[in-house]
Write a structure and sequence with these properties.
Length: 285
């Protein structure tokens, strides 16, 4: 089994004819957008694709927040508020939360002041209906939208995840291929026998990947059909920092250097080492 669009070039992107900063535009609500428009980065990636790592790199580089619908929903459940009580049974049963509620949570979140320069959407949209509403809202907010799809070879992912082992005593993670213990099956730190977590078993990994494929394919086709900027990046074989350098290069090409400088606002993030950011605006294409 291989990932969607296997054989797609490592990075493909549709570039706009003009930089987002060249001319003011008008939002779908008829209001003038002006020149200060937020960046909206929508990130897709299967389990094991490194999506979480790439999201962190983007947060560090651009200085904009990551918005995870899963985290927001779990926080409502933790607080046992009205929303949490209404969705906890659905989530525990693996059912989808109603689109209207998810849309509301996302829209309220991106209206917060820390999203004024931009934001990264992780785990949203999940349905074509959510995607349609998201596009409408982002257009009304005059956001510069880019969709990043991390393409993976599913056989590589299955090998990577199913090789994981964990110490039930101290929680240390190992991998049979990339980070094996000194003694097979035994934790280096406390000598406890290592175990395989239920969600790391090969049959479970395969089911998660198949579910992701079923869920995501209609969304990717939606973004292709609507002409939105779609970047597809091969994330199977290179180190995460090398993958991120290609994402940076593609974003510069699609959104333009000046627009990204505006998003960053020229402010470095103290104490954060970001792959590809070494004081120069150069990365590998």
């Amino acid at each position: 089994m291989t990932g969607a669009n296997a054989g797609t070039p490592e990075t493909s992107a549709v570039a706009p004819s003009k930089s987002p900063l060249e001319t003011p535009v008008t939002g779908s609500n008829g209001t003038a957008c002006g020149l200060n428009r937020p960046a909206a980065i929508i990130l897709f990636g299967s389990p094991g694709s490194g999506k979480g790592t790439q999201s962190k790199f983007l947060v560090q580089w651009l200085g904009i927040p990551q918005i995870s619908t899963g985290d927001m929903l779990r926080e409502h459940i933790r607080k046992s508020d009205a929303i949490g009580l209404s969705i906890q049974d659905r989530m525990r049963a693996g059912s989808l939360v109603p689109d209207e509620l998810v849309n509301q949570l996302v829209f309220e979140r991106i209206a917060q002041p820390d999203c004024a320069r931009g934001f990264i959407l992780d785990g949203y949209p999940r349905t074509p209906a959510q995607a349609q509403e998201m596009v409408r809202l982002l257009s009304a907010r005059c956001a510069e939208e880019v969709v990043i799809h991390l393409i993976v070879d599913y056989n590589v992912i299955i090998s990577r995840i199913s090789g994981r082992r964990v110490c039930p005593q101290c929680g240390t993670l190992y991998n049979a291929a990339s980070r094996p213990p000194k003694v097979e099956g035994i934790c280096d730190l406390d000598g406890t026998a290592l175990v395989i977590r239920d969600d790391d078993r090969e049959e479970v990994v395969r089911e998660r990947l198949e579910q992701y494929e079923r869920q995501t394919r209609p969304l990717i086709e939606f973004f292709r059909a609507t002409g939105d900027r779609l970047m597809e990046v091969d994330a199977s074989r290179e180190r995460p920092d090398a993958v991120f350098e290609r994402i940076q290069s593609a974003l510069r090409h699609v959104l333009g250097q000046d627009f990204l400088r505006q998003v960053i606002s020229g402010q470095a993030i103290p104490g954060q080492g970001v792959p590809g950011q070494n004081g120069k605006d150069q990365v590998r294409g």
